[in-house]
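Apologies for my clumsy wording, but could you write out the amino acids of a protein and the tokens describing how it folds?
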Amino acid sequence: MRYEIDLACGRLIIDTSKEVLPLEELLDFATRRNPKRGFLFVSKVLGKHIPCRPSRMRAIYDLLIEPLRTIPGPVVVMGMAETATGLGGGIADSLASRRVDADDVIYQHTTRHTVSAMALVRFDEAHSHAPDHIVYAPRPMLAHDYHNAQTLVLVDDEITTGRTLTRLAETMIQHLPKLQCIVFVSIVNWLGLDVRMNVIGQHVRLLPRFESVLEGGFSFVRNPSFHAELPGQLTAKREVEVRADIGRCGLRMGCRGNTLVPSAPVLDRQRPVYVIGTGELGFQPFLLAEQLERQGFDAYYQSSTRSPVAPGSAIASSISFEDEHGEGITNYLHNPPPATAQVLVVYEAAHCAYNHTLSEQLNAIPVILPRSDRRASA
């Protein structure tokens, strides 16, 4: 099916070849404040730029993992920072819950931050405004299953060229000697069959299989009168060390006792609740939002991002603020909650919440993710 979308930056033309769910349920569109690529596919089910009900997000996770229930384990699921850290965690969680051996699923996400661990992989993303991806060595208690993994599942919200995931796949093969299968999982996949077979196949020893909800291709006709510039300061003032136990050095899935879930304060059941994840902290705040929805709250989830997006189309409004780690990087919350909502902003550490202006701008309650104990580190 063909779709034509007019944006300030130009005209986007989409031809879909597979729609497990209709495009209108999955995507909206916006103009990026980025000269490298002027348009943005805005997911309606990712819980990033658009608030989403956790149950809707979980339904997408369950849909994507259905064909993967019998893949050989151990399985390493890897989400791409920052957009797919929550998506990857949700997919790993849903996958583990449906496997005979739930404990053979390990989740890890790439990161742009410094962790007290050895870096296995470091690379840049060609079209990104925030380029660094780092994969750290797994925590010692995960190392055996990690290095004996037979399946690697690489997760991103969309696959456009496949270059980033291909680079990650060909590098991770060197660290996973027992690997038998690679799967690229995304909500949307824009790769044609020729690219999957010829381009990716030339670089990756194990030709990946692909799982997605929507597939097709697109073209873009640029508006010559539109000019975009990256806003703000996108170079860190200083480098700080961050937590490893939220997924940067791996999490064993399958046992909810191993997964950190923030605790919610007392809330008014008559008012909607918005749970906001910060930066790469995407999966655990989602679990809190999901828990609240299951308890009967009118709950929504979304998270902050480094992605600068122009107002209009899918982006009604945005607020900006310095990153929660104090590195001096501009972050954004697009389509922020209404003033009538109760808002919980989840941070990975108390010092992240201290004087963070996002909570102040939203009149929100800061929620601190608890520290893991020895069992949670397994």
